[in-house]
Input
Amino acid sequence: LETIEGTVPKPTNLPPGCHFAPRCPHRMPRCTEGEIPLYQLEGSVEVRCVLYDLASAIQMSDQIQPNVR
Output
């Protein structure tokens, strides 16, 4: 498991949006612009990250085949 540098925020003073954004090397503006959706994966696995959302969108667009006549 890879660790994230920096200090964990206090539960009483969490940043807006993704609570990991201040320490995440992949953060983008969308990470701090509001609540991040929670995605249910297999079993009891959950993820709350805009990168998962973007990866899903890319994967879905790769699966869409244009209707060629």
User: Anything to note?
Assistant: Residues 60-69 have pLDDT under 50 and may be disordered.
